Amino acid sequence: MFLELLVSNQPLKPTLKFAGFSFVFLVFVFILFSRFGRLTATLTISLMSETESNKRTSSPWHHIDAGFINRRKCVSVFGRKYAELYEANKHRGNDHMSVLMNDHLLIYLALKWCAVNKIPSLGEVLVDPKENLLFCSTEKVQGCGDTVYSESRKSNNIEFPFDSSYNVLLEYHTSHIYADTQKMLLSKGHKMSIVGEIFKTEKSKIIIHPLIMGSPTYDHPDNRDLPFNYMFDGLRQYEIFAHDVDQFSDCKDINVTNEEWQKAMKSLSENHVNKSFCKLLSDTTTKDWGGEQYDHFTSDLKLNGERKSGAFLFKGPSAYGEMKPNHLGKNGDQIYRLQQSQAEVLFVQHCHHIGEAVRDTLRAFAVKPGNPRHYCLIDGKETYKIFKAYGLLSNQT
Fold first, then answer.
1. Buried residues in 299-315 as b, exposed as e (16+ CB within 10 A)
2. pLDDT tens across 149-168, in order?
3. Residue 63 DSSP one-character state
4. In this structure, are 174 and 257 located in the same domain?
């Protein structure tokens, strides 16, 4: 338009009128499309948020990558039926893909066996460790250095997020390692899913032997019909957020300041918190006592419309500050007792921040390969947002 004005022989005034009309029209179109764009963006964000929530609350098969397998030990420990199922379903070829598929079949059958037989996590076993006890869990394995590439036998220390009375040593023969990636992870240290057994107990030292060991993964044929990509969710899947629970979902749109929620949560009693969550779940409260597995159990939890059971651990303002494992009971064993329930979702609620060690501890107990459960941490800020959304901030509830 500006170039046309410069070369035109027409009178300037009418052209400027036309230019003004065009400008107004362009502004109108810009505003229209801007508002449509904002609406589209809002709808897109909303749909993405809903999709992410659906993904978090889904239950994919928790597999273990085929990094380390002691085949002889697997057959010995899991028994004749395990061996028969493997022989009946294995690939008959000797090519690389057939061998790889057979390794994954061994792991799949082992995890199914562990789930059926309710094999505990390593943390559970350490409560009363005995030789030959099996465990199945994901643990932080400290690095052993580059000698894993050259030595036939190696050992790595297990690092727990909670205080442990035992120094736990993972011992293995490197001939059972079938992937270079696994050697690298053992060399540098990493979180690994392990099916293993207690080999030896020596006062404060425990030696464990792995049967199967590798990175936690959801890349498995059982998950291919699910509408989500779990490729990079090995250490995230199964943690849900408070707003993923239908009865708490209105908290998602609540915005609060740090000063606001901290001032309120400092004065809300644990009894008030318990009663408020029970009200949201349409449950009745039960009397609290020192040795219970949980503070509240519900069979009417809803995750995206699907009914689930849930067990809650509530912590009031008596220890106002960031939650650490040593705040969880006299022996720091409240999470251990919580996970002993049959609940499908485990909740830890606190009036203040919840430390990373508590998150790691809860995950280690809840998310067992082959038999995982969802878990949720509701800190003081999320608790306040839930209560504000549903009008439950008064201590008179």
1. eebbbbeeebebbbbbb
2. 999 999 999 999 988 889 99
3. E
4. no
Q: For tokens 């109108």, what's the residue?
A: 28
CA–CA dist 78, 214 (Å, integer): 19
* DSSP per-residue codes, 133-201: -EEEEEEEEEP--GGGGT-SEEEEEEE-SS--SSEEEEEEEGGGB--HHHHHHHHHEEEEEEEEEEEEE
First to last CA, the chain: 67
Distances (CA, A) of 191 to 175, 182, 214, 217: 21, 11, 9, 12
Q: Tokens in use for 181?
A: 């990636």
pLDDT tens-digit profile of 319-360? 789 999 888 865 568 899 999 999 999 999 999 999 999 999
What is the residue range of 361's domain? 238-389
Judgement on whether residues 171 and 80 belong to the same structural domain of the protein: yes
The answer as to whether 36 is a domain residue is: no
* Chain segment 187-212, per-residue pLDDT in tens: 999 999 999 999 999 989 999 999 99
In a domain, 130, yes or no: yes
Average pLDDT, the chain: 86
Rounded CA-CA distance 60/66 in Å is: 18
302 and 187 in a common domain: no
- Into how many domains does the chain fold? 2
CATH number at residue 199: 2.40.50.140
Residues 197 and 309 in one domain: no
Are 200 and 290 found together in one domain? no
In angstroms, the CA 389 to CA 369 distance is 36
Which of 6-10, 85-89, 334-338 shows the lowest mean pLDDT across its residues?
Answer: 6-10
